[in-house]
Each structure stands twice: as structure tokens, then as C-alpha cells.
Amino acid sequence: WPPKIPRSPAFDETLSLMREGYGFLPRRFADLDTPIFRTRLMLRDVICMTGPIAARLIYDDARLTRVGAMPQTVLRLLQDRGSVQQLDGAAHRHRKALFVRILMEDKGSLDRLVATFRRQFLERVPDWSRMGAVALGKELDLILFRTALSWTQAPVDADLLEDDAALVADMIENAGHVGPRTFGTLFRRSLLERRFRAAFREIRRGKLTPMPGSPMAMLAGYRDVHGQLLSPTVAAVELINLIRPLVAIGRYIVFAALRFERHPQWKEILAEPDAERLTDFAEEVRRISPFFPFVGAVARASFDWKGYRIRRGQWLMLDLYGSCHAGEAFRAPDEFRPGRGVRRDEADYSFIPQGAGSTARGHRCPGEMATVEILKEAARLLAGVIDYEVPEQDLSVSLTTVPTGPTDGFIISGVRWRG
Ligand code: HEM
After folding, report:
1. 354 near 370, Cβ under 8 Å?
2. From ligand 1's centre to the CA of 93, what distance in Å?
3. Range list of β-strands (E), 102-248
4. Of 79, 121, 369, 387, which alpha carbon lies 20 to 30 A from 16's?
């Protein structure tokens, strides 16, 4: 680590970040030959970092906050104001425990989630057989949205189901850039939030009773550190914080399908159920696929770290994508090698596609187990339950757009049950 934090020579690099996407941070670490550098984004001074030492700092909840760490539009498309990610200290840990219970500790809840996904997926297969060409990503948006509604017990408006699924997918799609579509998506999101708020009010008035133990019931009944119930507004925000990222798993599933195409031996291997190899495969898909490029944090007070003075209010950024592709941590990092056996592990600060450190005490994603389990189930279905062709199309993945995926989406055809 250099004695003084090097500064990238450009005055402001917002446009370069937009242009370069996933490559922006890794390229500068390489060019400046450093794991840390300073630059300006949106005219704001930011210290960018990569690797396990930096990950320990960015997931040190005592010194940093997520408040003010993302542009407002991104915040409101993703976690939103009032959400668990915007809390610190005891209030954060208390609310986070609710997510940990729903998504990690309650085995029955997780099993129900995966079973719901499987059912929703299988229900679509006959239609796919009739359709000819199927855009896998779009289908997964709908399947996962239905899964999320059924599992959380969120209110369903059958007439709006497809529009709502597209809206949730747009929240993810539009988080990487700001433009007219961002504001359109934010407006549509506010209408969905209004419906969810109304549902929480109905529950409070005893007019609606979600299944006991369901996420909807847990959110409605949750009391914070001060014994207060969540306001319907915050409960609606947190409900969307369960639904939206579940839909986002479809992006990893498309990357898994792409891996089957590029490494057909893995499709063969996983056609026979094998829990360990399924996990190897799913975890390597999470490691190698470009998804969440980086996370931001802000210093709550001034402190010294590795001989650097970090001032109160300093904006910091950690390169998640680059950290998962670092040659120091992963041999041949750009090669897809499920055999390397990476696993979600709180002591491992190198394999961090969904954040690092303690899930319960810091801002690490509570949805990792759900992501891995759904990804495994999807791999099982794609490799062992259905057969399909992948017609000629552009399967290249651009690293300059965030978020990204195969250029033509990933079209499959000739879908049929596997004999
Ligand atoms: C936090 C990525 C799936 C719910 C995070 C963070 C990342 C991330 C990087 C850390 C943000 C930070 O450090 O500030 C992803 C990716 C997913 C995914 C790539 C793949 C689809 C899920 C799922 C759920 C979920 C399935 C829930 C159903 C959350 C919540 C937080 C979070 C509530 C905030 C945690 C906190 O601030 O304490 N996610 N996530 N995520 N994720 Fe995920």
C-alpha cells in the first residue's frame, strides 16, 4: 500500500465511470499500480479501494455508514430511504436480524422459497414448448416476481402482474445510469409502494391476515429497538427489498445458462444431481459474473487507517467485481473453474460478490443463501429437467454497461421435458 493515496490525474471521472462500467476501477488500480486511489465522481472526492484489506474496512460498521454513499436516484431505485441499509449501529443490527431470520435462519422459509420458485418455473415449461423462441431473462423476471409475491404473501393484483414484474426488473436495470427512464421507473415504483403501504394498513386494522411466519407477517409485526412497529411506508420499502433482489437473481440464472453454453461439460455433470458440485457451480457463477460492481460507504468520524487520515464524511468505494477477479486471491481469475470450490464464508474477504464480513452485524447481503439456493435449483432444472436449443445470437457480455448480461438477452428454443 503506497505511503500516500495516489490521485487519478483526471479532474472528475463520472463520465469515464459511465463509459467504462465494470472496468473503470480495475483499470485504474492496474494503471496506477495501487490497491487504493483518490478521484472525483459527481464532483465529490472519493477514495476507491480493492481487495480483502479494503473489504474489511468497508464492512466495518462501527466506523462507516451507508447514508450518503449512493446517488439519490440509485438509492431510491434499490434500497430506498428508511431501509435497513440506511440504518447504523444498534438500530441496524436489530432490523437486520429480521432479514437474517427470514432469509437465513428459518430453514422452512428458505425451503418454501426454493419450492415456490421450482413450481413457478415448471408451470411455464408447457407454454415455452408452444412459444418457439423464449427470452429466458424476461421469463425469469416473471417467474421470480410470482415466486416473491407468493413467498412473501404480498398482495397480488392479477391485472398488473406483468407490468409490476417489468417495473421491478426496471428498478434493477436502471440503477446503473440516470436518464428519463430512471424517473419514469421511480414514479411507477411510488405507485407500487402505495399499494403495499395500503396492505400493511389493512393488516394493522385486522382486515388482512397474511400467513403466520410469512415475510409479510414478520414485517407487519416487527418491533424495532424502541418497541415501535414499522410505519407502513418503511414496511412497504422493506417488502420491496425482499421482492426486487429476488427478481435480480434471474440475472445470475442467465449467466448460469450462458456457462452451460460455454462449458457444456457442466451441463452434463449437473444433469445428475450432486449437491456439492451444484454449489461449486453456483458459487463460481456468482464469483465470475459481473453484477454489483462496487459499494460505497461514508466515514462517520475521522480516523486513521493504514497510516492514512480518513476524514469524517469521506466517501469510500470498494470494488466488488474487481476483488472477485483478483489474481492474488484466485488463480486464473477470468477462467470459469467451479472446481476451485469457493464458498460464502464470513472469514473470506476475497470472495465478495454480495458484500463481505458479518451478515448480522454489517451491511453484507442477507440474501446470499437464497441466491445460491435458487441458483442451484435453476441449474438443476436447466441441466436435468428440460432440454432446449440456443439458436444463433449475440451472447457476448459487455462490461461497459451496468448491470449487464448477454447482448441478445439469451434466447432459447425447442423447449421440452428431458427424456
Ligand atoms: C445488501 C448484492 C440478492 C437483500 C447487498 C449488498 C450487496 C448485495 C453487494 C451490500 C450493500 C452494501 O454493502 O451496502 C446482491 C446481489 C444479489 C442480491 C448481487 C443477487 C441477486 C439479494 C436477495 C435479497 C437481498 C435475494 C433478499 C431477498 C439485501 C438487503 C441488503 C442487501 C436487505 C441490505 C443489507 C444491509 O444493509 O444490512 N446485496 N444482493 N439481496 N441485500 Fe442483496
Report:
1. no
2. 15
3. 133-135
4. 79
Backbone angles phi, psi at 13, to 5 degrees: -115, 20
* Contact indicator for 172, 405 with CB cutoff of 8 Å: no
Q: Is 256 in the pocket of ligand 1 (CB under 6 A)?
A: no
Q: Is residue 8 part of a domain?
A: no
Q: How do residues 32-71 score in pLDDT, each as one tens digit?
A: 999 999 999 999 999 999 999 999 999 999 999 999 999 8
Give, for 276, the enclosing helix (H) or strand (E): helix 275-288
Answer yes or no: is the C-beta of 295 below 6 A from any ligand 1 atom. Answer: yes
For residue 26 and ligand 1, the question of a CB distance below 6 A is answered with: no
Q: How far is the CA of 350 from the centre of ligand 1 (A)?
A: 17
Residue 102 Cβ < 6 Å to ligand 1: no
- Report CA(287)–ligand 1 centroid distance (Å): 15
Domain that holds residue 66: 14-417
Nearest by Cα to 77 from 2, 195, 185, 180:
185
* Residue 7 domain flag: no
CA distance 322 to 25: 7
Confidence grade of residue 419 (pLDDT, cut at 50, 70, 90)? confident
Task: Quote the ligand 1 centre to 245 CA distance (angstroms).
Answer: 7
Q: In this structure, is residue 3 part of a structural domain? A: no
Q: Please tell me the total count of domains within the chain.
A: 1
CA nearest ligand 1 atom 9, residue: 354
Task: Determine how many CB atoms are found less than 10 A away from the CB of residue 158.
Answer: 6
Q: Cα(98)–Cα(106) distance, rounded to whole angstroms? A: 11
* Protein residue whose Cα sits closest to atom 13 of ligand 1: 363
C-alpha distances (whole Å) from 33 to each of 21, 306, 382 are: 19, 17, 42
> In this structure, is residue 2 part of a structural domain?
no
Confidence of residue 80 (pLDDT cuts 50, 70, 90): confident
Q: Does the CB atom of residue 85 touch ligand 1 within 6 A?
A: yes
